[in-house]
Design brief:
443 residues; Lyase, Ornithine Decarboxylase, Chain A, domain 1; TIM Barrel; 2 domains; eight-stranded parallel beta barrel; 12 helices; 21 strands; binds pyridoxal-5'-phosphate; binds lysine; lyase; PLP-binding_barrel
Length: 443
Amino acid sequence: MYLHGTSQINDQGHLVIGGCDTVQLKEQYGTPLYIMDEHLIRSRCQEYMQAFQASGLTFQVAYASKAFCTMAMCRIVEEEGLSMDVVSEGELYTAMQAGFPVERIHFHGNNKTPDELEMALDAGIGCFVVDNFVELQVLNAIAASKKMMPNILLRVTPGVEAHTHEYISTGQEDSKFGFDVGNGTAYQAVKEAHSLEHVKLLGIHSHIGSQIFEVDGFQVAVERVAAFALEVQQQEGISFTVINLGGGFGIRYTSEDTPLQVSEYVEAITTAVKEHFSKLEGALPQIWVEPGRSIVGDAGTTLYTVGSNKDIPNVRKYVSVDGGMTDNPRLALYEAKYEAVIANRANDEATELVSVAGKCCESGDMLIWDIELASPVAGDLLAVACTGAYNYSMASNYNRIRRPAVVLVKDGKSDVIVERETFEDITSNDVIPARLTRTTITT
Ligand SMILES: Cc1ncc(COP(=O)(O)O)c(C=O)c1O
Ligand SMILES: N[C@@H](CCCC[NH3+])C(=O)O
């Protein structure tokens, strides 16, 4: 298995992350366990900040909190000087509870409810990324009732089809997100937003998809967004001060993945911005981006305990672990691929071809199809790498399985940042109506 961040193997053959022996982490916290490498998260944040500083452009790097949203994560992001993108009242609430500066929060989503808009307005949010005409009108009306004028960006689809899974591709016309540039709705939206009295149009937003490796999609998006901005400037006299280019920068899950360095993505984008936006009048716009996966993805490892197995001669050997699609639904959703290692025997040669199954009552509950491992037996620890993004944040309680704890590791110290759910948590919102109250049956 590729060793990400601070991961290494110690003299006893144990996988060590952030200076913490995973065998001891299991003793202390149990499994399944999400382990987050703080050093790697911070270095990724710094890589983004430094690459943008080097570009000379005015910028904001907003961490897309949907990838992994906890109060401790909000703290790290704040300390590293990033902004934050939220897509729901829950993410906004988490950031606010962590004391994240609200003026550095951007609110996304294709169906923000009036309650969410109101909550964000009352909090003094930095910017709304408006997705559609209904939202534009509702936001303007709520802001008018509060005598406010929030900053907004309009989300547009620039007609770029990113080379990624269709469920995480968002830049094309046939998408639930945004106003399309090609069919004229984006232009109409700019005119409408500009005419409204209670929103302040800063510019536009474009996000073409996620887990993208090539820079050409981003470069074409910049070119199209710039051409659109030029048209709007020349025909309507409206100039954008902010261009948000979204997230989507890919990471290495397996050896099939070939991501670029953060600095290479940023360099490609900022060079394209300078080239295409210099055709417009006035200063270059501020550039905002919203990376999620590339900040936390490879900083996460999930630790499981191996349990039963089922060997079907000449077909396949299933090795089951104590988690599965409830803590990582990405294989079921996107056929995502992962690498793993037996964490308590990480130097042993991987010689047995197995498939790693979860414990849910669901045939699709698989974590990895066909992986060479060092003959896993019950009691071994399996570490699945690169689970920091869209794992904890997409976890569920299917089969009433308790969500795992999350620990943050750094320099040999581990701290729980999310407690393991308890049985009480599982039933805490259940209510038994009075008419179902158990009565004693007498005969
Ligand atoms: C609007 C928006 N911004 C940012 C992101 C973060 O993307 P990623 O985690 O791929 O960087 C997403 C998710 O794809 C998104 O939809
Ligand atoms: N949840 C997706 C990414 C979606 C990004 C949000 N638009 C994944 O796990 O890859």
